Amino acid sequence: MTEAVMGVKVGDRAEFEKMVTAEDVARFADCTGDTNPLHRDPDYAARTRFGQCIAHGMLSAGFISAVLGTKLAPDSCVIYLSQSLRFLRPVKIGETIRAVAEVKGTDPEKRIVTVQTDCFNQDGEPVVKGEAVVLLDPIS
After folding, report:
1. pLDDT tens figures, 12-39
2. Helices 57-67 and 22-32, interaxial angle, to 10°?
3. What is the pLDDT of residue 140?
4. How far apart, in Å, are the Cα atoms of 39 and each of 8, 55, 65, 69, 95?
5. Handedness of CA 77, 83, 88, 89 (dihedral sign)
6. Which fold has domain 13-138?
C-alpha cells in the first residue's frame, strides 16, 4: 500500500471546471504572445480543418494547473516538476472544460505525487490527457 504525502493518497481526485470564453482566449493570447490567428481570427479559422476559432491547447493545460494548484492539496504548496500532454480534440469557444486530477502514485520520502491529468468537454469527451509529477511542500 502506498503512503500518503501531506495527506494526499493514491485514488484522491480533484476537479476544476470552467467555460471557455472569447475573452479567455484573447487574454491568454495577450499574456503568452501566442497570437496564432486560429484562435482569434474567424475568417482565418474558417479556412482551417476546425472551421472556427478554437482555444489554445495550453489554455486547457492551464485548467490542469488550476486543479493541481488549488484543489488537489489545498493545505500544501504544489510545485510542478513535469507534465505530459496529449491533445485529443479542439476546444471551441463556449465549451465547458472539466479538468480532473487523480493521484496514481506517491513517494512520501521525497513528497512527490504522480497524477493522471485529463480534461473533458461538457459532453464528457476527452480533450486533453496527460500525467503530472508534483512536489508537495508544507506551508509555514
Report:
1. 999 999 999 999 999 999 999 999 999 9
2. 90
3. 84
4. 37, 6, 21, 26, 14
5. positive
6. Thiol Ester Dehydrase; Chain A (3.10.129)
